[in-house]
Amino acid sequence: MIPPNASLVKYDNPVLVSRNTDKKTPRARALKVSPGPSTATGPVPNPPGKQKPTSVDAKAAQQTDEILNSILPPREWTEGGQLWVQQVSSTPATRLDVVNLQEELDRRLQQRQARETGICPVRRELYSQCFDELIRQVTINCAERGLLLLRVRDEIRMTIAAYQTLYESSVAFGMRKALQAEQGKADMEKKITELENEKRDLERNVNELKGKCEQIEKRAQEQRQVEEKKHTEEMQFLKRTNQQLKVSPMTGVMSHDCRSANQQQDFFLNMDFLSQGCMNINQSKTEKLCHMTHYLPIKNVNFIKIIDDRFCIT
């Protein structure tokens, strides 16, 4: 072990413990010790006058020492192959000791450059030592009050340890979540890439289908235009033919079916032949006209009337 650092807690002079002892006792005064160099951080009080202590005072002092040792255990270290033990001081503190403690605290805070705000391990260590020294001073005067302050100190330390554990666990949790987020990020990026590729394929299919739809619409439009043109021409032809028949029924028929005088003569000869053939048949007038006009290329009411008047079909 190495010599402990200087503390704000007041300790007695270190004593050398014999190396022949197998077990270290809680109090060095009960061992065969030799006084060592003084390392007390505070002023060493003058030894009290030599008075014969009573049994009650000795018992109270022993009880106070035991309480102090339970609150602040003795410090031990090895130097030059020898074991040194330093007990906490049981000397009552004066007003001057408290003032010196405050000045020493401020000096060490400035010397070790402790931060005034925020989390600072140096400031926490120095204030913990100052609180332990106050507990020591109070315990010497009133052991019960010292034990109560000990409970307060332990509660504060337990709270700080809980906060530290919570901080460490939160840091570990945050790191774990960060790693999961990184892994999830990689998975999401991969999924995004796959979805983008699928989107491009779908867009290509949409463009192809749009092209096919445009081609189909174009062909349908062309076909519709051709059919409309054909229908228009057919309607115009029928209208023109109907107009010609309305102007001159007989002339229209003759001009359409019989272009010359010979053709007209042949036409009426054929009609005579048909009329003679129809006269020999026992048919009604309507049936005879239907039979004769059946061979005509164009059926017209006026033309049928002309045939009826010419051949006198009865």
UniProtKB/TrEMBL annotation:
<dbReference type="GO" id="GO:0030286">
    <property type="term" value="C:dynein complex"/>
</dbReference>
<dbReference type="GO" id="GO:0045504">
    <property type="term" value="F:dynein heavy chain binding"/>
</dbReference>
<feature type="region of interest" description="Disordered">
    <location>
        <begin position="1"/>
        <end position="58"/>
    </location>
</feature>
<keyword id="KW-0175">Coiled coil</keyword>
<dbReference type="GO" id="GO:0005930">
    <property type="term" value="C:axoneme"/>
</dbReference>
<keyword id="KW-0243">Dynein</keyword>
<keyword id="KW-0505">Motor protein</keyword>
<protein>
    <submittedName>
        <fullName>33 kDa inner dynein arm light chain, axonemal</fullName>
    </submittedName>
</protein>
<dbReference type="InterPro" id="IPR019347">
    <property type="entry name" value="Axonemal_dynein_light_chain"/>
</dbReference>
<dbReference type="Pfam" id="PF10211">
    <property type="entry name" value="Ax_dynein_light"/>
</dbReference>
<feature type="coiled-coil region">
    <location>
        <begin position="178"/>
        <end position="226"/>
    </location>
</feature>
<comment type="similarity">
    <text>Belongs to the inner dynein arm light chain family.</text>
</comment>
<dbReference type="GO" id="GO:0097546">
    <property type="term" value="C:ciliary base"/>
</dbReference>
